UniProtKB/TrEMBL annotation:
The protein, known as: Uncharacterized protein
Record keywords: Membrane, Transmembrane, Transmembrane helix
Residues that span the membrane, as ranges: 56-75, 82-102, 140-163
Length: 249
């Protein structure tokens, strides 16, 4: 079950990163002219020939469906945290820039490798060998890929929501179940959530209106429930609780 939950989180996270990156690629028609204007203006101010080190990737129609899904994700997650309305689009632009650098560096790295492997002697080959440009491009490509893969994990602000989605996919998190709890743990849940279920196993008390956060691995089931001061969590040994899924919940 733990491996299933980890696999589900990996799938959810990969889709999340792919959608954000696709949104950044679709925003390239704005980002590219904007950056060209910034470099042009900076060049005028400094009287220097200022150019980006790597070519920015162009618009790709293949990214459009994933970008539309990313917009839906931003709108949905933004209802939980308003900072995600602007944070996620900005993050998608950042991912696009690192993706562009990794993509262009990869093209240059492959070109350099073919050039060095060629049996034909040419000045460009000697320049590549002496400068070490090939290794530089390889490092930039690997760094860009690593940043694209890991940056959303730390800067998206949506880790908790992604984990919650993965738990639902793995059916580790259960919304609005009926739970049956033995004493003394039954006394720790609010009486307001007690259910008058006609068929309650002997020695148990029935409750509704809770959320099972974790169940399926380990020796404990973690239950969250509303209380006067907000939301509380209670870890209950598996032998002290029965969880019944509600088909209509």
């Amino acid at each position: 079950m733990f491996l299933l939950a980890a696999a589900c989180f990996g799938a959810v996270y990969a889709l999340f990163v792919g959608c954000l990156l696709s949104l950044g690629i679709c925003l390239s028609f704005i980002v590219r002219p904007l950056l060209r204007g910034i470099f042009w203006l900076w060049g005028k101010i400094t009287r220097a020939d200022v150019r980006p080190g790597y070519e920015l990737a162009g618009f790709n129609w293949f990214a459009l469906p994933f970008a539309l899904f990313a917009v839906l994700l931003v709108l949905d997650l933004g209802r939980e945290d308003v900072t995600l309305y602007w944070g996620l689009p900005l993050l998608s632009v950042g991912l696009y820039l690192f993706y562009s650098a990794a993509r262009d560096a990869g093209v240059r790295f492959r070109h350099g490798e073919r050039l060095l492997a060629s049996a034909i002697a040419m000045p460009e080959k000697d320049v590549f060998r002496r400068s070490g440009e090939v290794n530089k491009y390889k490092n930039v490509q690997l760094m860009g890929i690593a940043v694209v893969a890991l940056l959303p994990l730390f800067l998206s602000g949506a880790f908790g929501y992604l984990l919650e989605g993965a738990m639902r996919m793995a059916q580790v998190r259960i919304e609005a179940p009926a739970i049956y709890v033995k004493a003394p743990y039954a006394t720790l849940l609010p009486e307001a959530l007690a259910s008058r279920h006609p068929r309650v196993p002997e020695g148990y008390t029935a409750y509704i209106g809770t959320t099972v956060l974790f169940k399926g691995f380990g020796n404990m089931t973690v239950v969250a429930f509303p209380d006067a001061n907000g939301t509380r969590q209670l870890a209950i040994p598996n032998e002290q609780i029965i969880v019944e899924r509600q088909s209509g919940g």
